[in-house]
Amino acid sequence: ILGRSCNTTVSSRSINVYTIAGYITLVHLVLKNKLHEILKMLRMYLNSGTSIINNNSIIYQSVRWARKPRWMPVAKSKMFRVPVKPVIPREEYLELQRLHNNYKTQERAVRNYIINEIRNESAGATESHMSPEEELADFEQCMKINESWNAEVAAVRNERLRVEALQKDKIIEDTIKKRNEYQLQKLAEVERKVQKMREDYKTFITPENIDSAIEAALSQIVDYNFSIDSKGNMYKGRKTELKQE
Q: Per the database entry, which stretches of residues form a coiled coil (predicted)?
């Protein structure tokens, strides 16, 4: 009724009388094409919180289809329609048959020709036209040519391997040189740090000079106080006198 295909399964419970009445009323309105009344009826059911279909008595599932399903019958407008068989004139039919026969004959001839050519080539390849002495001489000639090719390839390969070995040796030498330079730099840096620590060691406080260090610290009082005038001049010390300009 609502424009969709659906499979409806009725449960074993009895159908409500109001549900049947709702169905009958809805079908009656659809048959009379009263769309306004149908919308009014649906709006009334939605506002009242009830449904035309009683959920306790009917279980339904909607399935949409892009085309008409295969099990649906033929439409009433096409039920008794007999398709008209196209009428081909006699002359046209004979001409089409002649062209078709010519095409099939030519195709068969080309196919047979190709098959015969392949068979002849295969038969000629299997048959030998040389004597055993000629075959031996031809084999020796082929072996000489193959050996000359192998010698040329071996010479090229040996030259390539020699160049690659020289390049690899050069890369190894450069790597060793860079590694030695890096080690020398690290040793020089370590030596510089050790020398600096030796110089700083002279100012370290030890148990032998701790008394003199304490006396020097007490005698050299450091005053971190300072003052700033309106011009931004800084005067360090608590007891520093300001200069009168």
A: none
Task: Check pLDDT > 90 for residue 43.
Answer: no
Query: What is the number of domains present in the chain?
Result: 2
Domain boundary pick from 178, 201, 224: 201
pLDDT in tens, 215-225: 888 888 777 88
- Give the Cα separation of 27 and 31 in Å (integer): 6
Residue reference for tokens 């949409």: 64
Closest CA to 221 of 206, 232, 210, 237: 237
CB contact at 8 A, 65 and 4:
no
Average of per-residue pLDDT across 229-244: 75
pTM comes to: 0.31
- How far apart CA 57 and CA 13 sit, in angstroms, is 6
The residues near 182 (Cβ < 8 Å, ≥ 6 apart) are none
DSSP H stretches of helix in the chain? 17-31, 35-48, 90-126, 132-201, 210-219
113-120: long-range contacts at Cβ-Cβ below 8 A with a sequence spacing of 24 or more? none
d(Cα 13, Cα 58) in Å, to the nearest integer?
A: 8
Distance separating alpha carbons of residues 222 and 17, to the nearest angstrom = 110
Is residue 49 within 8 A of residue 79, CB to CB? The reply is no
Q: Which domain holds residue 101?
A: 89-127
Distance, CA of 167 to CA of 231 (rounded, Å): 73
